[in-house]
Sequence to fold (227 residues):
Amino acid sequence: GAVVSQHPSRVICKSGTSVKIECRSLDFQATTMFWYRQFPKQSLMLMATSNEGSKATYEQGVEKDKFLINHASLTLSTLTVTSAHPEDSSFYICSARDPGTSPNIQYFGAGTRLSVL
Amino acid sequence: GIQVEQSPPDLILQEGANSTLRCNFSDSVNNLQWFHQNPWGQLINLFYIPSGTKQNGRLSATTVATERYSLLYISSSQTTDSGVYFCAVEWKGGSEKLVFGKGTKLTVNP
Fold:
């Protein structure tokens, strides 16, 4: 299947700093990528839909100024957690839709575990 | 929005046993995917199955779209099957988003 690379896999940072997470589709071009958040022992919750060349669409309750999303190319979307606080500690997962499949299948990155001290 | 319910929430098996996991959804869907999340958090695609039946080795899945449910069958379970199994659907009224169920945590004991 298609490969989605997510980096870094783990990050520990101090409160107040910003953290950038990258999501790349390695063997297909993705006009749409998605960012999810997963708390321990819970399901994945969609945070935002990342559209290449346009602004991201955020789910209700997700602060767009807190979670900055940039989808500058057809293979890369980034999520920046700005001024991170301990409550932002979570597992963040990205996915990308493969336009070569019909209907489009989503492939997921390996996730980024963020710990804010 | 669409509701996705998975059952059972937890399942403990002895190695070699068979199991069935269920996913009910409340509205029409364009897409349904089953995933296995391993202990490191990686989501692994098992099946893309908006309707019909598919098999892959010891795993098979059936979706009855008209009755709004899907089943994942695991036969001759192995300890490596342990983890959380998620069902996710793309709602016809939901513009490409995948909505996840809460998952079934499977533990296979040796």
Q: What stands out?
A: The longest strand of chain A covers residues 90-98. The mean pLDDT of chain A is 92. The radius of gyration of chain A is 14 Å.
